[in-house]
Amino acid sequence: MRPSRHAWTALGGCLALIFFSYTYNDNVVISLHGMNVWSALADGRILDFYAYNDGVSPPDTGFHAVPIVYGFATFSVIAIWNLPLWLLQEVAGVNVFTSVLALGWMKAINVPFALGCAWLVQRISLRLAPASRWAPWAGFVVLSSGFLVSAVFVMGQFDAIHAFFTMLGLYFLVQGRRRAFVVAFAVALAIKWFPLFVFLPVLLLVEKRPSRILLSLAGALSLVVAFKLPFLFADNPSAEVGSSLMAAMVQDNRLPLGLEGVPVFPVLFALVCIACYVRRPASLPEMHRTAVYAAFAGVAAFFVSAPAYPYWFALICPLFAVMWAIDPARARVNLLIETGLTAAMLVLHQIHFYWTYDLGIVSPMILPRVFGSVESLVQPLDALGVYTRLGVVEYRALLAAVFTAGMVALLVLNRPRSDADLVVASEEDNTVDRTLVYGRAAVTVGLMLVPAAAYFYALLAHGRTG
Questions:
Q1: Residue 188 scores a pLDDT above 70
Q2: Comparing C-alpha atoms, which of 133, 92, 48 is closest to residue 432?
Q3: How far apart are CA 352 and CA 53, in angstroms?
Q4: Are 159 and 315 in contact (CB under 8 A)?
Q5: Closest by alpha carbon to 192, among 115, 246, 231, 112?
Q6: Are the beta carbons of 335 and 401 closer than 8 angstroms?
Q7: How far apart, in Å, are the Cα atoms of 229 and each of 92, 187, 232, 242?
Q8: d(Cα 133, Cα 328) in Å, to the nearest integer?
Q9: Whole-angstrom distance, CA of residue 39 vs CA of residue 48
Q10: What confidence score (pLDDT) does residue 235 get?
């Protein structure tokens, strides 16, 4: 049994509505940076790319400049996707930053990677647990995940790209293709650094020879170095390698130990890596199950201990979905826990990172063009205003606690087991609870529609000026 055609249609319709209702400033400006790859090439300044983009923002719009912190590999992918928009802008003189369709095109770069990620999750799940009736639902679970929908369909950030190559690497691993595994992670790491939290624990699990570990690590980092080298001596080099933002986040939340205090994440991640290195699974199936767990544990260590941005959480979704699908005995409780921790963190994101869910993401897209501009609202209301009125804001720490408790519970419940200790799913456990799966999707859609609902409430309750 798989998700029905009606379920896919309903999910697709909701995602399309969310997609065209919002866009996030950073997606638009980073897309401009990517389009400027072509401009820099045309002007003979490609080696000065980062200085070329410094402080730029779309003309005659409300979008503002953002730091240029991505590596050139990311900008290359963005440039290729947005070549049609660059041609419209440079050849036809069209201001593509005022068109809903063009803004949608900029966001849409993430959609193929999200779909590919869902496909890979389903393939991995079916390969590792062909008897699991939950496995055919893994793709639906990925695409209805609140973290992925937020990153891809609301903000349009680029984390689905590295998530796709991360899952491709794991797919190659379960196929026994070790070299392809390293190559896929080389691409993923060239896009962003987060796949390292997956690659290193999994590598230490499957390889025990120090020379092979170092060789594989060098291979995985090769594209990062290759894309970085041409810009190292530029006037305004990329800050992606050794980024001060990443350095600050992985060293935040310190324990009161030693001379400087000990940041929590490096301790947790080191423990995950050590546990992976000393563990020796007795069989290939056990190795693959443990690799999925190790990947999830490495990522969980970061998101539990670091003050991460909302769109970075997209990497949790596919890793959880595989871990969930291959263990039908715990599928229900795992999905319930994941639904709760995701909902809690999404509400916290809408409060703490309020600018990623305010009326600024509604203003450029379809709703104000049909029903009236955000600027014309008599009493504007955004997601933060909704939660403030509901009295939720004062419980921010409790929301963070729910997320942390949920992640720890998932790590405990799904700890690796030997083949002999596997829990055999009963017929009832291995029967898909469609109400639970669809209910989780409804929670995702409901939370993602809060900014649009706030806009409509302000419009209907107080009207527009003039």
A1: yes
A2: 133
A3: 29
A4: yes
A5: 246
A6: no
A7: 35, 16, 5, 14
A8: 7
A9: 12
A10: 60
Structure tokens at 103: 């803004």
CA-based nearest residue to 262, from 250, 271, 272:
250
Two tokens, residue 247: 């350095």
CA angle 326, 330, 334 (to 5 degrees): 95
CA dist 433 → 184, 304, 332, 398, 429 (Å): 34, 28, 7, 29, 9
Looking up tokens 């349009």 gives 156
pLDDT at position 206 over 50: yes
Contact 240, 228 (CB under 8 A): yes
Tell me what percent of the chain is helix, strand and coil, each rounded to the nearest 5.
Answer: 70, 0, 25
Tokens 């050590």 appear where? 274
DSSP letter, residue 152: I
- 101, exposed or middle or buried, with CB in 10 Å at 0-12, 13-18, 19+? exposed
**In this structure, are residues 404 and 308 in contact, taking their beta carbons and an 8 Å threshold?**
no
- Cα–Cα distances (Å) from 368 to 79, 358, 364, 372, in that order, read 29, 14, 8, 4
Sequence length of the chain is 466
Q: What is the maximal distance between C-alpha atoms in the chain?
A: 73
Instruction: Please give the C-alpha separations between residue 422 and each of 82, 289, 337, in angstroms, as whole numbers.
Output: 48, 11, 21
- In DSSP notation, 22-33 reads ---HHHHHHHHH
In our burial notation (b when 16+ CB lie closer than 10 A, e otherwise), range 216-229 reads: bbeebbebbeebbe
SS3 2: coil
Q: What's the whole-model pTM score? A: 0.94
Residue 263 is inside which H or E element, if any? strand 262-263
Taking only the tens place, the pLDDT of each residue in 11-53 is 999 999 999 999 999 999 999 999 999 999 999 999 888 888 8
- Per the CB < 8 A criterion, the answer to whether 98 and 61 are in contact is yes
| Dihedral over Cα of 406, 408, 410, 412: its sign | negative
Q: How far is CA 348 from the centre of its chain?
A: 16
